[in-house]
Design goal:
alpha/beta; Rossmann fold; seven-stranded parallel sheet; six-stranded mixed sheet
Length: 333
C-alpha cells in the first residue's frame, strides 16, 4: 500500500482556524451550482457508530453548514463490509452527488467504485483510510505510519526489561491499520528489549477484539505488552486485560478516545492512547470537496495530527481539551 507524504495542519485548532478563514473570505466562492442549487457532497465512512465516526460527522456537518452545502453521511454497520460501502458510493452517484468524501473499508476492493465515481465527474477526497484509486485528488487524515511509530515509542516508555509484544490489529485489507502496524514494527524491532512479536487480526468490534485478545494471552502467557490500532479493538483489548486481571502486568498502547477507554487509562488497563483528530478529518474533508467544486486548489495530502495521552499527562489542560472535546461532540449527536 502506498504511503501518504503528509503536510501537517499545524495543530488541533485546525477546524476553528478554517472557520475563521471562511468568515474572512466569504463571498469569494459559490456554494451553489449554476442552476442555483446547493452543491451536494456525500460522505461515506467505514462505519457510523463509534465515537470516532460521530466526531467525523460533527466536523463534516460543521463544514457543510459553514459552506451552505447539501451533505449526506453514511457507512456500513461493520467496518469490514466493503460491498455495502461500494453500493453506497454507487447510490451517491445516482443521487447526483458532486463530490465524494470517503474513508475506505478496503484499499483494493473499494477502488473500482471510487474510480467509477471519478469517471462520472465526482471530485474525490479521502479521509482516514486510503483507497487504491487514481481518482483521489486530496487525502486528509492521520499520518498512519508516523502514528504507528508513536505507538512503538509509547510502548517502549514502559519499565519492562524484556518485552513480549502482542499486536491486535483489524482488517488486513484496511490501509490505515496496516500502515500503523508497519510504522510500529519498524521502531519496535530496533529495540534490544523486544524478545518476540505475535500478531492477530480480528473483526473490528469490541467483542471480537476481546475474545481474540483473551485467546492470544492464553496461547502466549509471556506477553507483557500489547498495541492495538483503532477504537473498537482498543476497547476489546482493555476489557480483556480487565477481565484477566492483567492491568499491572501488561503495558497497553491503544488508539482513539471515548469515555470508556479514557476511563481505562485512569484505572490502568490502558497505559497510553494515541489520539487522532477525527473532527478535523470530517471538517477538512468536506471543505476540500467544496474548494474542488469551486475550482480552487487543495493540498494533495494533509496530516491532521495525533497526540500521545498517558496517565501522567491526561489531566494537563491541552490533553483535557483533546479527550473531552470528543465526548461533548458525541453527547450532542
Amino acid at each position: 500500500m502506498k504511503k501518504w507524504e503528509h503536510r501537517r495542519t499545524g495543530g488541533w485548532q485546525v477546524a476553528v482556524l478554517a472557520a475563521v478563514i471562511l468568515l474572512i473570505s466569504s463571498g469569494c466562492a459559490s456554494s451553489q451550482t449554476a442552476t442555483g442549487k446547493k452543491h451536494s457532497i456525500a460522505l461515506v465512512t467505514k462505519s457510523t457508530t463509534s465515537a470516532f465516526w460521530h466526531s467525523v460527522k460533527a466536523g463534516a456537518g460543521a463544514a457543510a453548514a459553514e459552506y451552505n452545502l447539501d451533505f449526506t453521511f453514511e457507512g456500513p454497520e461493520k467496518e469490514e463490509d466493503y460491498e455495502t460501502q461500494n453500493r453506497m458510493i454507487r447510490e451517491a452517484v445516482e443521487r447526483g452527488a458532486e463530490a465524494l468524501v470517503i474513508s475506505a473499508v478496503d484499499y483494493n476492493a473499494n477502488a473500482e467504485a471510487v474510480d467509477q465515481a471519478a469517471k462520472k465527474g465526482l471530485q474525490i477526497v479521502v479521509i482516514d483510510s486510503d483507497v487504491n484509486s487514481s481518482g483521489v485528488v486530496s487525502r486528509i487524515g492521520t499520518n498512519n505510519d508516523a502514528a504507528g511509530e508513536m505507538a512503538a515509542r509509547a510502548l517502549l516508555d514502559g519499565e519492562e526489561e524484556v518485552l513480549h509484544v502482542g499486536i491486535v490489529n483489524y482488517d488486513v485489507n484496511s490501509a490505515n491499520g496496516q500502515q500503523r502496524e508497519e510504522g510500529f514494527r519498524r521502531v519496535i524491532q530496533e529495540s534490544p528489549r523486544v524478545a518476540d512479536i505475535t500478531t492477530i487480526n480480528v473483526i473490528s468490534t469490541t467483542e471480537d477484539a476481546r475474545i481474540g485478545t483473551e485467546k492470544l494471552l492464553k496461547e502466549h502467557p509471556e506477553i507483557n505488552a500489547i498495541v492495538t490500532f483503532n477504537e473498537w479493538t482498543s476497547l476489546g483489548v482493555g476489557w480483556a486485560i480487565r477481565g484477566q486481571g492483567l492491568a499491572d502486568a501488561t503495558r497497553v498502547v491503544a488508539f482513539d478516545s471515548n469515555v470508556v477507554n479514557v476511563g481505562m487509562l485512569e484505572t490502568g488497563e490502558v497505559d497510553a492512547l494515541i489520539v487522532q483528530n477525527p473532527y478535523a478529518m470530517g471538517y477538512l474533508g468536506v471543505e476540500a470537496a467544496y474548494r474542488l467544486l469551486n475550482g480552487q486548489k487543495v493540498t494533495a495530502v494533509t496530516d491532521t495530527d495525533t497526540v500521545v495521552v498517558t496517565r501522567e499527562n491526561m489531566y494537563d489542560e491541552a490533553c483535557q481539551r483533546i479527550l473531552f472535546t470528543f465526548e461533548a461532540i458525541n453527547e450532542q449527536i
